[in-house]
Every structure is written in structure tokens, then in C-alpha cells.
Amino acid sequence: MLLNNNSFGSFRLPKAKNMDAPKTSDVVLVAGNSHPELANLIANRLGVKTGGCAVYHKQNRETMVQIGDSIRGKDIYIIQTGTKDVNNNIMELLIMAYACKTSSAKSVVGVIPYLPYSKQCKMRKRGCIVTKLLAQMMCKSGLTHLITMDLHQKEIQGFFDCPVDNLRASPFLLQYIQECIPDYRNSVIVARNPGSAKKATSYAERLRLGIAVIHGEQKESESDEIDGRYSPPTLPRSRTMDAGVGVPIHIAKEKPPINVVGDVGGRIAIMVDDMIDDVQSFVAAAEVLKERGAYKIYVMATHGLLSSDAPRLIEDSPIDEVVVTNTVPHELQKMQCHKIKTVDISILLSEAIRRIHNKESMSYLFKNVTLED
To answer: Looking at 94-103, 246-255, 355-364, which range is the least confident one?
Structure first.
């Protein structure tokens, strides 16, 4: 089920005079191998064809990029997203951007609906902030602008040395709730953990609904210990310090049993998040919501990565529907699980490309967007 939206809720894109026939004399769409279906949807909406660029792998798995037509002095838009083959996706993007840069392109804009490695944006133990490394690599390769959607943390924009437009998919999901969920007025927006409470509050305020928060054991393991090197404190060697006095240690966390803060009895529970990758935490939250009396459970997210055996877990869970956008390809997962629904967001990306190319303001696409969105 692919919902082809030309408008979404109260957030309607204006019919631009040149939307059907944009200035295509110096704009080129180039697509990698990550999501050709989305690239074709964007190209069809803009009324252009994807450029003659071949991206393939040699027998030794090296990535090769060949640009067939001259791109000198043209604006290049590279459409590439993050999938399960994430490292190849990144190398394809970097090589395509560098190939465009060395071919004297006027500008190289990366259209990356889902930015890979965006969850590794904090220091953990003796690791590193991988998102910053990726951002620096993208800028060095030749990208002059970035269009993405619903970054895991909005502060990731600061890692880039080029402009970043972080678009929002929430208007599409809000429209889905209003048009496709019967009796949505009897719903409650649920935050899967306290960290997603801001996003849930944003949805609840726009739909004039109540909110509930799940608190307790079912917390993502990667965020349990988000900072610090966990080295033992050094022993005091100064003679001015008393024996036994050192740096105080954090008291270990002891999470309470899982609990739902808010009333979901006899209501439709709608969990919202920015991405669905490992669904075990969503399934556990759905089981608790079912025990508390929720008679229907929906999960809404922008990026449907659905890794591992996510389709099977969703199929066997109390979740009634999982609604995601097509920022990430998941056709195979939809064949394995009938509960997964897709919302098309290509119109938003194509409008962003059109506005950037025609040097129009992007502020309309961020109308009524707050810090919580």
C-alpha cells in the first residue's frame, strides 16, 4: 500500500507555476543503487530523467562510477539513502560526489532521506562520534548542500560544513492518522520511552489528543551508557588529600519495572518515533499497552529499516499496523508482513529540489515546525 499524497493535512504544497515544467537546462538527477524506486518517483514529479550515471561493483567489490554526459556547470542532485548495505551506499555516494566535483559541476546536492550512522552521534565508552566522521567525508568529497529527513538528533546538522535541510515527514503521518485510522479521536499518542516524549507531545498537540509515556526496563541498550570512558578513578597521590578520598562514582542505574504513565484503557494507542530498526522494544511496549486495555495499536515512524527478523516479530505481535515512509526501501519486508504500510514522501523531496534549484525560499517547507518536531 503506497499512499501517493499530493497534499498532507494542513501542510499543503502550493502548485508552483513551473512545478510541471521546471527549468531543466542545468539540473541533473543522479541516483545510486540504494533506492531506485524513490529516485524514479522524484524524477517523475519534477518532469526530468535521471542522469546517465552508471554505478557498479567490480569483481573485487570496488565501487566504480561512470558519468556518461557532460555535467560541467550544472547543478547535480545525488539521490542516495541508507539501507542494510550501508557501507556500499556511503562509498557510492562519496565516489559519485567526487566524480561530479572533478567534472566541474556547478553544485553537488546530496538528497539523503535517511542519513546512515545517525544513531552513532554520541560518544560511547572508548568509541567515537561516527556521524561527524561521515559528515566530514561527505563535505570533503564535494557535497555543497544536503537534503535529509528527520535526523535522529537535530544537532547532527552542526557536524556538516555545508547547509543542511532537515525536512520533516510528520505532516504525512499526521494525515495518515486523520484519514486512515477510524475513530482516531479516541486515540492516545504513546512515547515508547521518555526520550521520545517530545515527539509524542508534538503529535498530540497537533491532533488535540492525550499522551502516554512508557517508562521502565524496555529501554534501548545502546543508550543505557551513553557517555564516559568507564576507566577506574585514579588513586589520589597528593599528600594534601586524605586517604580514601577520590572522585565520586556515579551510582548505578536500577530501572523500575516497565510501566505506562497515562491512561490507554479502551483507546487506540499510536506509538511514534523517528525510525524502526530492531522492533523488539516496540513489540514489548505493544504487549504492555495491550495489557493496559488498548484495543488497537499503531506504530508510526519516518524510517522503516526493519532489520533482522522484524517482519516476523511484527506479524506475531499485538501491533495492528506499522506505518513508515519510503525513505528506505522495504518491499521485501512488506511481502513478509501485511501489517507494514508505506506513505510516499517523494513530493516533499521533489519540492525541496525544485525550490533549491530555482533559488526559492525553503521556509514554507518548515512552516509551523518547532524544536520538538
So the answer is: 246-255
